[in-house]
Amino acid sequence: MALGFAHNHPTGYEAFSEIDSANERALLEALSNRNGGHVNLVALLLANGTWKGRVRSSSAPNFPVPARHIAIIGSRIQLGSFAQQDTTGFRSRQAAAFGQPFVEALASLRVGVIGASGTGSPVITLLARAGVGEILIIDNDCLDETNLNRVRGARKSDVGEYKADVLARFVDALGLPVKTASMQSLIDVSPDAVDALSTCDVVFGCTDDQLGRQLLNSALYAFAFPLIDLGLGGHVTEKDEDAVLRSHFGRISVIFPEFGECLFCQGVLREVWIRHQEALRENPALTEEQARERYLEGGGEGAPGVGPFTSATADFGVATLFDLLKPFRRFPAAVRKDQFFIDFVNMEINSRGQKGDFDCPYCGAHEFTNLNSSHRLGRPSLGRRTVHV
Q1: pLDDT tens-digit profile of 1-20?
Q2: Torsion-angle region of residue 44: left (phi > 0), alpha (psi -120 to 50) or beta?
Q3: How far is CA 256 from CA 74, 75, 125, 293, 351, in A?
Q4: Burial class (CB in 10 A: 0-12, 13-18, 19+), 388
Q5: What was the pLDDT predicted at 351?
Q6: CA 301 – CA 352 distance, rounded (Å)
Q7: Is the pTM of the predicted complex or chain greater than 0.70?
Q8: Rounded to whole angstroms, how far apart are CA atoms 63 and 124?
Q9: Residue 297's pLDDT band (boundaries 50, 70, 90)?
Q10: What average pLDDT does the segment 157-182 reach?
C-alpha cells in the first residue's frame, strides 16, 4: 500500500503546479523519514472535470512518473489519462466500431484471468486479440488430453504442461502488442498470486474452484476491482446408452465494489460447498458417503465442458468488459446487469431473482470495502501485507 492524496484546482488550472511539486516532495520526505527504505507517494489532481495522476519515489523524488491511467468504478469503468495508442492494423476495426479512446483504454488495461481452461482460454485469446495491454494468467492445473476439445491454443504436444504457461506462450506467439505473465498457483493459498491479483484493473473468474471463487469474492471489495465471473451449468441424462443434454447454460456475473450482488447472494457460492472442498483438500480420498456423514455437499455449477458452450460464454464475458468501458447494451427489464444466463438449449437469456440481503458483509454492509487487517484479505494463512502509512 502507498500513501496518496487527491486535490483540485478551483481556478481551473489543468496541470500540476510548482506548488504541488513542492508539497509532494515535502510529504515524500516526511513519509520516507517515518517509514525508512523505499516509499512511494501518489498524487491525484481533478481539474476541469478531468483526473490526472502521478507517483513520486523516494529514490528519485524530483522525477514524478505519470500514472498509466486512472480508473473510476461505480456500475461501469471510467478510464482517464491513458496514453494515446496506434489504432492501425488489428485494432482498426474496433476503433471503427467503438472509437479510438475505447481501444486506447483497452491497451492501458491489466486484466487478470483466473483459470485457463474451457472459459478462461478463450477469454485470454479474445482479450489479446482485442488489444488489452497486459494479461495475468493464474492456473494451477496441467493440461490433460481431455482438455483439448475446449482449451484454446493448446496442442497435443502441450499435454502435461501448466495451462497458464501454455496460454501465455500461445498469446506471445501471436506477435501482438500484449504482455503476458503466468503463475502456476492456487489463488486462495498463494500470497504472490494475491499480490499479483491486487495490481489488476479488471479480473475474470474462470474457475470452477469454490475456494478460488470465495477468495475472488473477497478480493474484489478489498482491492476495488470489477469482477466478471463466468460459469457453466446443465443437466445430462442417459437414455438407451446415449447421453441427452437436458439443459445447458452459461452464466455471466458482473460485480463492482459498490454495485451488483456478490457471488454468495447470487447463489454461485454457498458455505456448505466451500466446506466440502476444504474437506477434499484435506483428504482427496473423501467418499460421498463420508461427506454426507459430515453434512457436506459439493453443489455449485457443473456441466460437461463442450467447446461451443465454453467459447460462447467467454464471448459474452469479453463483450461485457466492452460494455463496461463503453456501454452499448440495452437490457430488458427481466435481465439483470449484474447476472444473466445464456440458455443454450431453449435459446433464451434470463436472470435469477435478487436476494437483496442488506446485511451481507460483502454487497450489503460492505465490510470488505474497509477491511482492517494486517494480513492479506484478513487471512493469516496468506501472510502479512506490507503497509506504508
Answers
A1: 688 989 998 877 889 999 99
A2: beta
A3: 7, 7, 24, 38, 18
A4: middle
A5: 97
A6: 14
A7: yes
A8: 35
A9: very low
A10: 96
Phi, psi angle pair for 109, to nearest 5° = -80, 145
Q: Are 171 and 125 in contact (CB under 8 A)?
A: yes
Q: How confident is the model at residue 388, as a pLDDT?
A: 39
Distance (Å) of CA 312 to CA 84, 251, 307: 31, 10, 8
Residue by residue, DSSP assigns 107-157 as HH-EEEEE--STTHHHHHHHHHHHT-SEEEEE--PBP-GGGGGT-TT--GG
| Three cell numbers, residue 130 | 482485442
Q: In whole angstroms, what is the distance from residue 120 CA to residue 305 CA?
A: 12
| pLDDT, the chain, mean | 89
With beta carbons less than 8 A apart as the criterion, state whether 185 and 112 touch: no
Asked whether the beta carbons of 250 and 349 are under 8 A apart, the reply is no
Cell numbers linked to 309: 458452450
Q: What residue has cell string 440481503?
A: 357
Cα 247 from chain centroid?
28
Share above pLDDT 90 across residues of the chain, in percent, rounded to a whole number:
68
